[in-house]
Amino acid sequence: MKTYLVILIALITFNVQSQVHDKSWRHIIYGKEASWFATDEAKEIAENVLLYQRDIGGWPKNIQMHKPLSEKEKQELLNLKSVGDNATIDNGATIQEMLFLSKMFRQTQDETYKAAFLKGLGYILEAQYDNGGWPQFYPLKKGYYTHITYNDDAMYNVMKLLSELKLNTGFYSITPEKSQLEKVNLAYHKGIDCILKTQYKQNGVLTSWCAQHDENTLQPAKARAYELPSLSGAESANVVLLLMSVENPSNEIINAVNSAVNWFEKTKITGLRKDRVYDDVGKIVDKRMVPDEKAPAIWARFMELDDNTPFFCDRDGIKKSTLAEIGEERRNGYAWYTNKPQAVLDQYPEWKKKYDLQSQKSPKNPMKIVVAQDGSGDYTSIVEAINNTKAFPYERITIFIKNGVYKEKIKIYEWNENLALVGESKEQTIITYDDYFNKIGLGRNSTFHTYTLLVEANNVILKNLTIENSSGEVGQAVALSVFSDEVVVANCNLLGNQDTLYASGKGKQYFKDCYIEGTTDFIFGSATAFFENCHIHSKKNSYVTAASTPQDAAFGYVFKNCKLTASEDVDEVYLGRPWRLYAQTVFIDCELGEHILPIGWHNWSKPEAEKTAFYAEYSNKGKGFQPKERVDWSHQLSKKEAKKYTLKNVLGNHKDSSEKEWYEAL
């Protein structure tokens, strides 16, 4: 207890001495030439930066880290390392130190700097709330410090860091390992989701953001006495610029940006200029607002939630209508107006031209539409293209998608029948989204809302695409959902974890030459589905299929000439289990890896399903094919029985004629 008190007293004393704003530290980080970071001077400062880093990975704020330290001060810092209470993202802390270390590593390749940078990244990832926001301090510090903090661009700075790492732009010299990059990707998308959910609705209309939002309700929240719940003209600007930087923005993001820009236009103040009055030594002694018709637009830092009226506040927490009404200390020592939103308004026309749905032109050929992110096609997003296709066409409409990563949540509606989505290449035409069960949060059926691509229309072709749910291993998260009839999925990668492919409905579906990966029940549903020449890859000890075949269906899932593999250390995988009692799954002429358990099948703790489900195999091969060890309620088909599992018999509509079948449209 005595040791802890000594450390606590040292912490308070040290922070009183060190919590001083000094722009020169920031200048060192952002203003020095790259070559300077290889000098002895830089290395001495780097030793200070390493000393100030807490064991938890973060740094305290407002520290003059370039100032020389005495041996006593160095020892005090070593004693404080285990006390993480002051680690924060406020005032640029942690993010700017990580940038400094990145620049040091780029010049020196000293692994010490890399390790400290990655430790800082670990701190950022650990500090994030499940809802995607970040508190001002972590470990959590009582009071307003627990709120989701946009104030002074705290969360924006974190999101920019994650974006640079996620996109591998080279801005930072250090590339995290794959597992940490996956966490970075998840954290970034959760952050975007939080931003969208915290955008304030004023009388039903989206506006902007507050400097801080309650971490539970997500509503605008109070911080210091003079920082009351309000709409912020300052912090909202960089939030919007961040959303505008998202490639292939969702309709939600597009709507958020458009709404915020409308709000900036509505709340800008013209004809008013801010003047500063200085004393003989250059200190600001007064700030005054002066009428000036030629003054550029400015925005108030704080505006009323209900009607956008600017207000000002002293340390007594009482709102005032003008800056002149508050005391000298707060009037001169705080930024009450800002011009930051002007950067949004300057960039918005070009962004709108590229992404706003209403500004898109009609396709040159409505039956052969091209999507290209570089603007060389008819549309820049797949959703736009689908939304502009003719409903219930008599002839097939083909949407050709050029290579690119399309972060879109796509729905092919019932009226979009006779539609084909054809990628330029399977490897480089990537459709990705990151919804998952807990993120959707719509109750027990949230899984069905997590899809990246949903097909509700009949007679649809998906070809040469990668369709991915990028949320990571976070529970149920669907990549592709198909509910309809006569759907072909050819030469596609279907990537995810739990519940990757939902092949469902009462229709017929054909999966040809596809790669399908996942962890648990990653091929599931009620459809009659034929999988031919597919590569089925298990990423975890679990179950490949979870069919829910209707009782009256002639066939369920049929796998023919497929190859089943697994990731390293995966060695206990079942071929399937019955999601519903009459599940049907058959493997014929397939190569089964040694990860497939000898017993093959699981009854999902439903003994009654052993009498109603139909699980069978024929002529499989590989170490995972052990017919004598299979559960006694599964079947090994005879040659005669296996003959009925032809493509035409399972999926065809003209079994007794040579008339062309629907799946031959490829």
UniProtKB/TrEMBL annotation:
Ranges of residues in domain Pectinesterase catalytic: 369-651
Top-level taxon in the UniProt lineage: Bacteria
UniProt enzyme class: hydrolase
UniProt keyword terms in alphabetical order: Aspartyl esterase, Hydrolase
Pfam families for the chain: Pec_lyase, Pectinesterase
Protein name, per record: Pectinesterase
Catalytic activity: [(1->4)-alpha-D-galacturonosyl methyl ester](n) + n H2O = [(1->4)-alpha-D-galacturonosyl](n) + n methanol + n H(+)
Gene source species: Gaetbulibacter jejuensis
Active site residues of this protein: 521
Entry EC no(s): 3.1.1.11
Pathway, per record: Glycan metabolism; pectin degradation; 2-dehydro-3-deoxy-D-gluconate from pectin: step 1/5
Protein family according to the UniProt entry: Belongs to the pectinesterase family.
PROSITE patterns: PECTINESTERASE_1, PECTINESTERASE_2
InterPro entries from the UniProt entry: Pectate_lyase (IPR012669), Pectin_lyas_fold (IPR012334), Pectin_lyase_fold/virulence (IPR011050), Pectinesterase_Asp_AS (IPR033131), Pectinesterase_cat (IPR000070), Pectinesterase_Tyr_AS (IPR018040)
